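Table S4 entry, Nucleotide-binding universal stress UspA family protein.
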Amino acid sequence: MKNILIPTDFSLAAWNATQYALQLFAESECVFHFLNAYTPELHSNRLMAGRVTDAAKDYSAQTASEKGLKKTFQRIKKQYHNPLHKYKTISSFSMLVDEVKEVIEKQHIDFVIMSASGGADDESIFLGRNTVRILNHVDACPVLIIPPRAVFENLHSISVVSEFSHLFKSDELNPVIELARYFNSTVQIVSMQNATPQIAELQQINHEVIAEKLGSIYHNFYKLDTESSLTTTLKRYVDQTNCQLLVMSNNANSYLRNLCNDYIVGKSIFCCHVPMLSLQLIENNISISH
């Protein structure tokens, strides 16, 4: 039985991520935990009227959260009739990241699945504030990011970005292996073409670790031409290949870390139309700059 956590703000993008998750694990026994964390604005409480206003706003936010979760649950039951799936809802007056970390630990979450951006983000944003916060602070649980217009298709092709600055640990690729076996996918290990002997040696070690871990799963290696920036190169790679899932390790020196060093990631900085799987490790936190 898998446990899947889906943070939601009830936006169209969040519903699209929900649909993707339900279809991704359509043939697996799962418990889907839908989380909405709300934090009403704080107002002056020096006057009694202020305290009453605050209480009313707290109640209003709680009601909206509970109603939104109920509506999501009803919509799922109406559109999806999967006996393998169970659903739980969590309405929490707390900071999103804190609640996500607590649910992951208590419910033994296997995957966090969420939209790349939310209802509060405009069209120019690829990764919104909440998504960046989750990527920065969630440890030891893979995070699957779903672009707003991504449509689920069976994962025939998974691409794993292998960076010379990061050596994969033996268990780090478990989420990838699980998905590849589930969908009988081909895994392509994508590395940067670089003539530096030291980097070439590190990449070779990485490839050996990955190949050993993948075992009988069909896989191949692909070298990216790095004449242009890594951002441009990755975008071109995704656009020109049949990549259906882009996998990146989230560690202190990774491309993903550098990508998410601000509150948001604008489409002008990076934009990917396929889902991205971030492999989160305890020592691989990202820090948001202020």
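Confidence is low (pLDDT under 50) at residues 42-53, 284-290.
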